[in-house]
Amino acid sequence: MSQRSSITARPAPAHSAAVVPPSLAASIRLSAGHPPAAGPASQDDRALDVLEPVAATPVYAHPALLLVLFCGALLLAGAVVYLGFRLTGGRVPPAPAPPDEQKDAAPKQARAEEITAKRMEGEEVEAAGPRLPAPAHTEIDGLAPGLNRTLGRLEEALERQRRFSSDASHELRTPLTAMRTQIEDALQAPQETDAATLARALLPSLDRLQRIATDLLALSRLESDALPVRRQRVDLGKLAEGELRTLPITKRTVPLLGPDVVVMGDPDSLGSLICNLIGNAQRHAASTVTVTVWREPRGPGGPPGGTAVLEVADDGPGIPREQREKVFQRFTRLDSARSRDAGGAGLGLAIARQVAQNHGGRLTIEDSAEGARFVLQLPLAPALTP
Ligand SMILES: Nc1ncnc2c1ncn2[C@@H]1O[C@H](COP(=O)(O)OP(=O)(O)O)[C@@H](O)[C@H]1O
Ligand SMILES: [Mg+2]
């Protein structure tokens, strides 16, 4: 037995055979200077001086080849990124939804289309309006609240449109029916009717039709903002004084018109606003109407230059608080059928409020000891520099 032997090669135990990879096992060689003994080796002769595991370098692991491969991979990655940007226009496409979300998206889209189609056709649907369920835990579900808000606005707009069409048709039908009856009566007994009598009978209904058409046109122009407000200096006290001179006054009317209450605006539309307020008050007052104009210094949240205020108050039945916003809607009339005949189509206050808003102001109904109190507030015009 050699004394130099330090490692004895023995058949590997069964459990360790798999531990040494064949490539490594094949490359275990005897160290230099200790060649294996020639001739048949005995059990002891297989003892080795030193065993050095030397890993063989495969050809593909050559450093130069690796460098070339690495550079090639870099170039390829760059080309892929460039092509991707060219194809997507530089935008990062949204991550595709997981399969179960994609499964959810199709029925939701179909539902959204169904809801929109129903609304557009004016079909009756549930009172609160159908909506998409909005659990909001995925990207697609995150869109549902926005879509629901749009559906809500669309629903309100269509409802307003429907109500407007039906109210307008109703208002137009009343004078038209009256005129038709008068003409049919005249045709039934032509010898008892002369043209002048028939024309006089028809005129009030024609006037009414003309008023409605004019008001509707004014309202649509004011709402569409198609015509910019004509701006000039308007003395509110003088304007109210002029309207009081021309309007039919049936009740005691007290003017309290302060001087130099000047606003920037359109005298025609402001005049028609004042005219409507005074006309309404004359119709509803028990005995007295008060028209007051004054300036208010700058208040908290008010216009920087102060506010011009015009107030029309009467001692009539007034307007209940819960109806005070409603009367500003088109075609709203709270009056009984009898006093209705004296009034218009219920468009006056809708127009008046729109005029106030287009002048940067507001028209409201405020509390009062008795009757109704309409208050118009407009920004005061800047003082003229001498
Ligand atoms: N001073 C008032 N007192 C009581 N009710 C009023 C007064 N002014 C307006 N109203 C109510 O508001 C409704 C709407 O007024 P308006 O829009 O001017 O329409 P119209 O004058 O054509 O009736 C009136 O029909 C009436 O019911
Ligand atoms: Mg009116």
Name the descriptors.
single chain; 386 residues; Helix Hairpins; five-stranded mixed β-sheet; two-stranded antiparallel sheet; 9 helices; 47% helix; disordered N terminus; binds adenosine-5'-diphosphate; binds magnesium ion
How would you describe this protein?
It is a single chain. Helices cover 47% and strands 14% of the residues. It has helices spanning 22-27, 63-88, 99-120, 139-188, 195-224, 236-246, 267-284, 337-342, 348-358; strands spanning 7-8, 28-30, 47-48, 51-53, 232-235, 252-257, 262-265, 288-296, 307-314, 362-366, 373-379. Strands 6-8-9-11-10 form a 5-stranded mixed beta sheet. It has a two-stranded antiparallel sheet with strand order 1-3. A hairpin with a 6-residue loop joins strand 10 (362-366) and strand 11 (373-379). The longest helix has 50 residues, at 139-188. Helix 3 (99-120) runs parallel beside helix 4 (139-188), helix 6 (236-246) packs across helix 7 (267-284) and helix 7 (267-284) packs antiparallel against helix 9 (348-358). The chain has 4 domains: 7-53, no CATH class; 59-88; 161-224, Signal transduction histidine kinase, dimerisation/phosphotransfer (DHp) domain (Helix Hairpins), CATH 1.10.287; 232-379, Heat Shock Protein 90 (2-Layer Sandwich). The protein is elongated. By secondary structure, the protein is an alpha+beta fold. Residues 1-54 have low confidence and may be disordered. It binds adenosine-5'-diphosphate and magnesium ion (MG). Magnesium ion binds at residues 276, 279-280, 343-344, 348. It is found in: Cell membrane. Residues 100-122 have a biased composition (Basic and acidic residues). Its main location: membrane. Keywords: Kinase, Membrane, Phosphoprotein, Transferase, Transmembrane, Transmembrane helix, Two-component regulatory system. The chain crosses the membrane at residues 64-85.
